[in-house]
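stage 2 :: seqdesign
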């Protein structure tokens, strides 16, 4: 009688498993073919549902806006093309290095942004584009909802600056460079409504959730902060640390954070 060795017997895949493997492979192939066809323009779909369509800065944001914005920010040519559609007035800045880890590329100086800005900030194209998307699609709708009037001015307290990160103890020597050092950040301290009412982060940021619901200024700032997280890579506010008690720090290109 021949010896029987269970370990030498190889299991035979069932018909169901084989069909599942074939079906999965077919689905993956079909999906890859569909993605390729859309990406290369061989199949046309509405731009709203096409992740490779150019970013429409005027369109109501949807589930693809974040992907399109991120893709646009990474491409200098696409970014400037999208920025030209915003209606903002700006001057192109010459690329320059201003110090170790400092300087900017593909940057602009904003002269007019649909709202008054006080001084003219120098911002990278990705930062300027994100600022427009936030102001148009988050801040203004929130102001209309809370006060029935638009924002006409935004107070900022810093854009480009060759300095290190400030975590509350000042710009410590040897610390990593701030996103301000590459014109990828803007600090927003407050805003002014069409009625002339001025709302500042220092005075109106809610100190507790219980009182904020009855204060439209506090709710507007909360809306502005949450909305910024949709269009910037990094957003820091008063809840982050004492160094940000009086402004929102908005940045692109760094780590994703919404604090």
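stage 2 :: out
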């Amino acid at each position: 009688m021949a010896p029987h060795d269970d370990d030498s017997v190889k299991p035979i895949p069932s018909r169901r498993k084989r069909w599942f493997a074939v079906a999965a492979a077919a689905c993956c192939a079909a999906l890859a073919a569909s993605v390729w066809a859309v990406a290369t323009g061989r199949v046309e779909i509405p731009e709203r549902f096409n992740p490779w369509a150019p970013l429409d800065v005027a369109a109501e944001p949807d589930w693809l806006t974040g992907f399109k914005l991120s893709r646009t920010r990474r491409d200098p040519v696409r970014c400037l093309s999208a920025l030209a559609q915003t209606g903002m007035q700006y001057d192109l800045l010459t690329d320059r290095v201003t110090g170790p880890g400092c300087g900017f590329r593909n940057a602009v100086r904003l002269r007019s942004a649909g709202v008054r800005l006080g001084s003219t900030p120098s911002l990278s194209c990705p930062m300027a584009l994100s600022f427009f998307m936030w102001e148009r699609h988050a801040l203004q709708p929130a102001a209309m909802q809370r006060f029935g009037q638009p924002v006409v001015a935004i107070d900022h307290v810093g854009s480009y600056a060759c300095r290190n990160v400030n975590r509350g103890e000042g710009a410590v020597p040897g610390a990593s460079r701030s996103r301000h050092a590459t014109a990828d950040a803007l600090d927003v301290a407050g805003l002014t409504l069409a009625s002339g009412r001025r709302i500042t982060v220092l005075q109106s940021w809610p100190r507790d959730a219980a009182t904020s619901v009855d204060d439209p200024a506090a709710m507007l700032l909360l809306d502005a902060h949450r909305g910024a997280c949709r269009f910037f890579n990094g957003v820091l506010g008063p809840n982050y640390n004492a160094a940000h008690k009086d402004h929102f720090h908005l940045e692109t290109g760094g780590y994703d954070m919404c604090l």
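stage 3 :: structure notes
- Residues 13 and 19 are 10 Å apart (CA to CA).
- The radius of gyration is 25 Å.
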